[in-house]
Design brief:
328 residues; Spore Coat Polysaccharide Biosynthesis Protein SpsA, Chain A; eight-stranded mixed beta sheet; three-stranded antiparallel beta sheet; 12 helices; 13 strands; 14% strand
Length: 328
């Protein structure tokens, strides 16, 4: 019995050390993120009579994730959407069950739309025998990287707020992020930036450099965010992101996505939608078009963002000391 206790103790110690390492490794990215647009209350006044832009929340999920989806929707509704009533769009490669549809519709204060993803499969040039991960998971990462912006259910919208089943929103939103995106002419918003592990993306930067060599780089890009002495593997956590779909639907974004897609790294390595999106944002957008939602409270798995501002803390239930970004 003593041996069992010692083994459990060692496992707990190792898990604790792993958590400390993850937090330590990612804290320095806050300094990089602070270079982009950062709004904290009080916000500059918006034009009077600012209308809601064509915007929606987007889930890509399955019926089995109903409980996690409802948990996230509860936060979103209480913290924001009960006041604004933006619609939800649910996408899946399988048809949603009636129980799922009923369960999420009851949570929403706004219209809810369900749609099937037709082009979920891997590209024809992918050798599935070389894929070491779940092919369905890789298909999802690829779909989030680019194709989802063209789904018919998404077409009516200009801006999307991506929602991840099981994630938590721990602070009230005192303004409308969609309106901010429109009137500040912002193209991309995020709450957390992290560093990817080297073994996950061994050929990512080399492939990206090949793309840059074939295309002229924009003078006002934010590529230096990704490069210190070398590629630093910084990337945005895409589980909570705000996107101007005009950016994702642009020729420049689609050219980059198509090039990186054909390298096969999403399937043969562990490139993710965060990998592709971060490269596109860094290459194609200026700092003034990228928004760090430093005042948003958000958590998913071991990663979180919690504002330390005293005013914001009155509207939150999170601990800034546990934030992935330790905000000044």
């Amino acid at each position: 019995m003593a041996f069992v206790y010692r083994r459990i103790y060692r496992i707990l110690v190792l898990l604790g050390l792993l958590l400390v390492f993850v937090l330590w490794r990612n804290r320095h990215t806050a300094e990089k993120a602070s270079e982009v647009v950062r709004y904290t209350p009080p916000l500059p006044p918006l034009p009077t009579g600012s209308a809601q832009p064509q915007s929606c929340f987007v889930f890509i999920t399955r019926s089995m994730s109903l409980t996690k989806v409802r948990r996230t929707m509860f936060d979103v509704e209480k913290r924001f959407n009960e006041r604004y009533h933006y619609p939800y769009v649910f996408l899946s490669e399988n048809h949603f069950s009636d129980a799922f549809k009923e369960g999420v519709t009851k949570m929403a204060s706004s219209p809810v739309h369900f749609a099937l993803i037709e082009d979920w499969q891997e590209p024809e040039w992918i050798d599935t025998d070389r894929v070491n991960d779940r092919i369905g998971f890789r298909n999802m990462l690829r779909y989030w990287s680019g194709p989802f912006a063209y789904h018919p259910a998404i077409q009516p919208y200009r801006y999307i707020w991506r929602l991840e089943p099981g994630s938590h929103y721990t602070c009230d939103f005192e303004y409308d992020p969609f309106v901010e995106m429109k009137h500040r002419q912002l193209k991309y918003g995020f709450a957390i930036s992290i560093q990817e592990i080297p073994s996950a993306v061994p050929s990512l930067w080399q492939s990206f450099e090949q793309y840059i060599a074939q295309h002229s780089s924009r003078g006002n890009s934010t590529l230096d965010w990704l490069v210190d002495a070398d590629f630093n593997r910084c990337q945005f956590l895409t589980n909570f992101e705000l996107i101007d779909l005009d950016f994702m639907r642009s020729t420049e974004y689609q050219e980059l996505f198509n090039f990186m897609d054909k390298q096969g790294g999403i399937y043969y390595e562990q490139w993710s939608d965060a990998s592709i999106r971060s490269l596109a944002v860094a290459l194609l957008l200026s700092r003034k078009q990228v928004w760090w939602l430093a005042d948003a409270g958000y958590s998913h798995d071991l990663l979180s963002n919690c504002p330390s501002d005293p005013h914001r803390q009155r509207h939150c239930h999170c601990d800034p000391a546990k934030s992935t970004h330790l905000l000044p």
